[in-house]
Design goal:
The structure is a homodimer.
Chain A (H helix, E strand, L loop, with lengths): L8 H28 L2 H8 L3 H7 L3 H20 L8 H18 L1 H12 L6 H24 L8 H17 L1 H6 L8 H19 L2
The first copy, chain A, binds a DNA duplex through helix 1 and helix 3.
Chain lengths: 209, 209
DNA sequence: GATAAGTTTGACCAATCGGTCAATTCATTG
DNA sequence: CAATGAATTGACCGATTGGTCAAACTTATC
């Protein structure tokens, strides 16, 4: 029984098309949200006729759901970095760093998320109420333990996570504003590294006794 | 020369209509952004026919510009609280508190701003590059002085302001997410007060030597 | 109470929306 | 190479878009 390891031209064309549509959709949804996005603009950015787009993705909503699903996966992936260290400071620093890296590597994903929330989370609402809520409450328990052990100052863990999410995702969602405040240029790699370290240190100092 | 202090019925009807259209527009723009918003939906929320809306505001863009102008005014108003104290900690605490209060009092304004940035700031871009950039660089100078005086830790002031903006505006822009993580209910006044104090204390501790 | 000015609204318009479809082109397989 | 199925696309559809307009209505002024 031989498995076709080498993709047929047909299959790789399909793969390539789906990828280019997917990428175009990400950028349009990130910029305009679900309602403001148009399939015509997505097709234009993908470099194909609109009818071809609808051959691969039946509806705008189906395409949007594909896009959001990936965003949630990436979020959870970064979230796992919180659990990889035992020490409180190390775990927090690793998590903030991972969230900063994700914001830098995939700002569109963060913006798609932000647009969803602004619209009342019609698609990812269920994820927020279940997966995210569970993730948060279990990590709150960990942070509370650290507080009890005197490793962190007394505080409400939930609002600390909000600060982490806000401060890190800001570098993706408000990239345009930062550009305007940076002489029209995006943050350089060097600038971003400084920002990343500062976010980590400021937040860590903010919760260390 | 007598000035009409009491408004004529006509004038107050006009005032009321403009206000209700304005408020409806704020909520629709905050939820869907400029492109996703429709004049039909704004008219519906204002409780008037669409044609009547266009009698008061010629175009969707004109209405949007009115709305954004007010948002920028409110932002600057909150910004002034930074200058009302001489002591570094007091000035920072007052500013964060004012930004938290603004996010709580007018979440729609913050969301309209966020939508603008996500779309590349086509309307407020000029404000960002001039007024906001000037405000930021002059306050950076103040913070740098405090650092030189040993009142604050060494850091890049700009990224500290980004953290303040992110952490405070998060309470407006991501209110929907917080609700989902709070059993479907918005933050109570008591919860918000706790969050507000925690944001202030965490950020202050984060930059104090 | 007549006239003018300001306000309201249903009907309508061209453009764009998400989506369909049949005809055509293309790659694969027997 | 013939036949089959996947992929492509221009033309098209009904619905919705931002916006117009003339007619009707309401208030203010003389």
């Amino acid at each position: 029984m031989s498995v076709a390891v080498v993709k047929t031209p047909r299959a790789s064309v399909r793969e390539g098309r789906e990828k280019s549509i997917f990428d175009a959709a990400r950028s349009v949804f990130a910029e305009f949200g679900f309602k403001g996005a148009t399939t015509a603009e997505i097709a234009r950015r993908a470099g194909i006729p609109k009818a071809n787009l609808h051959y691969y993705f039946a509806t705008k909503e189906a395409l949007y759901r594909h896009v959001t699903a990936e965003v949630l996966t990436d979020w959870l992936s970064a979230a796992s970095s919180f659990d990889e260290k035992d020490d409180s400071a190390e775990a927090i620093a690793a998590y903030i760093g991972a969230k900063m890296d994700l914001a830098r590597a995939d700002p569109l994903g963060s913006r798609i998320w932000a647009n969803e929330i602004l619209r009342g989370a019609p698609v990812i609402g269920d994820f927020l109420e279940t997966t995210l809520a569970n993730w948060l409450s279990s990590r709150e328990a960990i942070v509370r333990r650290w507080i009890d052990q005197g490793k962190l100052v007394a505080m409400e863990p939930r609002y600390f996570f909000y600060m982490i999410w806000a401060s890190t995702q800001h570098y993706a969602d408000f990239e345009g504003q930062m550009m305007a405040l940076n002489g029209g240029k995006p943050l350089s790699d060097e600038q971003f590294e400084v920002a990343k370290i500062q976010v980590i240190e400021t937040l860590l100092r903010g919760v260390m006794p």
